[in-house]
């Protein structure tokens, strides 16, 4: 069977329908599944075919709202909520232990969650909260779940880990490795740190692909510009207006150089990264508009030495050696 060519306007539904046979029977854990976000749409479409979709969030009330909406949208889907605060290493360990105790195997891990920006804030672990949520929490979670993921590997299936990054990584100088362990307000801006976090996603994916030696396939991606939760937060408006993404009143700028996608279009590239069979020999790659786009990675996020250094620093910060 010839596979369709995907593009900017491809929807998550179209991708899921194309690879329905690959999604069936799979168990998927996905972070960042609040309503009015591409994570919710990704989970909804996967749930049409998957055996189990584990949705996560740090707020039980919001998590239950997502679960109820998913069950309403996809009657019969098996949706399991998991309390997970990625900004807390202790909370990540607790959630990982819960997942490792599940009787079901785990096939796909999708890192979609991001902190919503705002003022400089340290976590209980002394980390800047955006980087904790985007890099250190996901690093620890992946490390702790890696044995469960690897256990499902076979000659016909390799587990995948997907990182939802952003073209925003192009708008900054890359990850400030020197200040990750000891962040200070002097080195912080909301959008600057967001750009760093998205650069870290790409570096982590490429290094995970390299170090796992084929036991795990890892991919990062730019989902597109979507008028979702984070873009609607008041404290992000000034930056987004300055970039030309939003109008001064906070509405989407239809004349922006960043063309907007629907939620369905925004979730599509994540589905491709998680299930497209054409990516089997492309582990570590970056996707954009549902296709490979390694040429669009900023040099600072394509540097293998930077990826190795970020990995080593992450191991020190979470106090765990990540080996395969």
TrEMBL record:
Coiled coil: none annotated. The keyword Oxidoreductase applies. Keywords: Oxidoreductase. One of its GO terms (molecular function) is oxidoreductase activity. It comes from the Eukaryota. The keyword Oxidoreductase applies. It holds the Pfam family adh_short. Belongs to the short-chain dehydrogenases/reductases (SDR) family. This is Short-chain dehydrogenase/reductase family protein. It comes from Favolaschia claudopus.
